[in-house]
């Protein structure tokens, strides 16, 4: 008789948890996965997938406007927000059904409940105890909100994806990628957007040229970015359906909005799970501390994805899942290499980035002779006839001594698609000479990376 009910129980049916469960099952493990919301997790159900569908919707407004420059009769069609949300939800239902099918075909048992740990080998679900040899925590993250008066009136990115109507005015508090993406979505679909940030600039942690470029383009589109501004209190005004709100600012002043959205960060989703009681070490934010093999402080427990606060990207969680399964079930301890992982912000215009920022490169290459920086700003070809006032920017950061490209950044049309390919080049140690020797495709935006010749003279910026 088996010592445990399962070889693997995974808590959390997001992209990482689903991948690990079905891959373990394919290797012969008896696997179950526990989820208390929707199978598919944050990315598919409450994050990148529905958000990008809304980004696509917003692009049509620009396309209709730009078409006049190309000989099309200008049209001003109406926009139906409920129809968009209905279509989005239909697609999410389809994707969830695909996940259920994939898990079923792999032989993974799905348990729809909230899980807590009784001990390192026992998971409590709906009053039942399930035992497992190996446990995987893949519960992701959840939006954080400050404790201020009136916080009960606000929404997060979760609710923003399912609003019944498009607000006329929306205040978005936060300067990270979620905040700037939703600012772009609501602005492009016709809402008046005010983005409120504590810092002097949006997107802390990104390259400074990228941050400045995007902020300028957002403001040209009519987004009001309130820098170094703090909301102290939120008051509901009147009895309007959905609410009209007044935001009281520290230092004086107010901002009126029909909706208030907070996007001030996410915390690992570990509260109330019994992890600490089971001996699992957590950090100050509640993230599971793991080693290079995604193993927690308890030998049979692993954790992957956003719950570990390593690199919160869906493809990284999937790669961590693959590595964890090889380690725990394949006899091949596998650590993930986090260097030169590309990422994107689906802002308007979007960002694509891989490698080091200029500030980071100064630190890494400083002792070896410093860096060279190449920057190009230009109008995308599409806008030469439409007259749209939107620029693109491309930036290469090069280690001066070796010529190795340390960072590759872009703001502008198709940036995520373009930068994704350059991730291969950076992972293989490409040099500026390799870029210069490459013949690009003309006319494209991507070829600009192969024609950057003028070094930026002022390299004082970004030095640590």
Brief summary:
This protein is α/β, with parallel strands linked by helices and 464 residues long. 30% of the residues lie in helices and 23% in strands. The protein folds into three domains: 6-143 and 267-329, FAD/NAD(P)-binding domain (3-Layer(bba) Sandwich); 151-264, FAD/NAD(P)-binding domain (3-Layer(bba) Sandwich), CATH 3.50.50.60; 343-450, FAD/NAD-linked reductase, C-terminal dimerisation domain (Enolase-like, domain 1, 2-Layer Sandwich), CATH 3.30.390.
Please state the second-level CATH architecture of the largest domain: 3-Layer(bba) Sandwich
CA-CA gap between termini: 61 Å
Outline the biggest β-sheet.
Answer: 7 strands, mixed
Report the CATH topology name of the largest domain: FAD/NAD(P)-binding domain
Break the fold down into its secondary structure elements and pairings:
Layout lengths: L5 E6 L3 H12 L4 E5 L5 H6 L1 H19 L14 H26 L2 E4 L2 E5 L2 E4 L2 E10 L3 E3 L13 H4 L8 E5 L3 H12 L3 E5 L11 H13 L3 E3 L4 E7 L6 E6 L4 E4 L1 E4 L3 E3 L32 E3 L10 H16 L13 E3 L5 E5 L2 H8 L5 E8 L4 H4 L5 E8 L5 E7 L3 H13 L4 H6 L27
Helix pairs in contact: 1-4, 1-8, 3-4, 3-6
Folded structure, characterized:
The protein folds into 3 domains: 6-143 and 267-329, FAD/NAD(P)-binding domain (3-Layer(bba) Sandwich); 151-264, FAD/NAD(P)-binding domain (3-Layer(bba) Sandwich), CATH 3.50.50; 343-450, 2-Layer Sandwich (Enolase-like, domain 1). Residues 460-464 have low confidence and may be disordered. It has helices at residues 15-26, 41-46, 48-66, 81-106, 157-160, 177-188, 208-220, 314-329, 358-365, 383-386, 415-427, 432-437; strands at residues 6-11, 31-35, 109-112, 115-119, 122-125, 128-137, 141-143, 169-173, 192-196, 224-226, 231-237, 244-249, 254-257, 259-262, 266-268, 301-303, 343-345, 351-355, 371-378, 392-399, 405-411. The termini are far apart. It is 30% helix and 23% strand. The protein contains 12 helices and 21 strands. The strands form 5 sheets. Strands 1, 2, 3, 4, 5, 6 and 16 form a 7-stranded mixed sheet that branches. A 5-stranded antiparallel sheet has the order 17-18-21-20-19, with helices on both faces. It has a 4-stranded parallel sheet with strand order 10-9-8-14. It has 464 residues and is of the alpha/beta class. The chain is globular and about 75 Å long. Helix 1 (15-26) runs parallel beside helix 8 (314-329).
């Amino acid at each position: 008789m088996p010592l445990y009910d399962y070889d693997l129980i995974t808590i959390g049916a997001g992209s990482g948890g689903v991948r690990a469960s079905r891959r373990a099952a394919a290797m012969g493990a008896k696997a179950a996965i526990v989820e208390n919301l929707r199978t598919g997790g944050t990315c598919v159900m409450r994050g990148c997938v529905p958000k990008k569908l809304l980004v696509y919707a917003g692009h049509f407004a620009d396309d209709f406007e730009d078409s006049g420059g190309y000989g099309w009769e200008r049209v001003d069609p109406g926009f139906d927000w409920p129809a968009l949300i209905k279509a989005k939800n239909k697609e999410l239902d389809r994707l969830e059904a695909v996940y259920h099918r994939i898990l079923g075909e792999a032989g993974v048992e799905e348990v729809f409940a909230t899980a807590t740990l009784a001990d390192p080998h026992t998971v409590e679900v709906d009053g039942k105890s399930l035992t497992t040899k190996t446990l995987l925590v893949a519960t992701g993250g959840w939006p954080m909100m400050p404790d201020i008066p009136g916080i009960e009136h606000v929404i997060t990115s979760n609710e923003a994806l399912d609003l019944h109507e498009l607000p006329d005015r929306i205040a978005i508090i936060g300067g990270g990628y979620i905040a700037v993406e939703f600012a772009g979505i609501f602005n492009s679909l016709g809402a008046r957007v005010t983005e409120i940030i504590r810092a002097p600039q949006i997107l802390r942690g990104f390259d400074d040229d990228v941050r400045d470029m995007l902020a300028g383009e957002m403001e040209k589109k009519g987004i009001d970015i309130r820098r170094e501004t703090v909301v102290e209190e939120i008051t509901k005004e009147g009895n309007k359906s959905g609410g009209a709100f007044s935001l009281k600012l520290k230092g004086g002043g107010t901002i009126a909005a029909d909706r208030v959205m907070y996007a001030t960060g996410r915390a690992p989703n570990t509260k109330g799970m019994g992890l600490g009681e089971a001996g699992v070490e957590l950090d100050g934010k509640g993230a599971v501390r793991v080693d290079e093999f995604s193993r927690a402080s308890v030998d049979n427990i692993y954790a992957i994805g956003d719950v570990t606060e390593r690199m919160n990207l869906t493809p990284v969680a999937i790669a961590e899942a693959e590595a964890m399964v090889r380690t725990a079930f394949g006899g091949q301890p596998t650590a993930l290499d986090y260097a030169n992982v590309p990422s994107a912000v689906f802002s308007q215009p979007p960002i694509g980035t891989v490698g080091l920022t200029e500030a980071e490169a100064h630190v890494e290459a400083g002792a070896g002779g410093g860096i060279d920086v190449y920057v190009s700003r230009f109008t995308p070809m599409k806008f030469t006839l439409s007259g749209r006032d939107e620029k693109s920017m491309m930036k290469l950061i090069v280690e001066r001594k070796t010529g190795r490209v340390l960072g590759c950044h872009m703001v502008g049309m198709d940036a995520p698609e373009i930068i994704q390919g350059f991730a291969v080049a950076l992972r293989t140690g490409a040099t500026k000479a390799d870029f210069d020797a490459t013949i690009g495709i003309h006319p494209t935006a991507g070829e600009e990376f192969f024609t950057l010749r003028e070094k930026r003279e002022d390299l004082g910026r970004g030095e640590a």
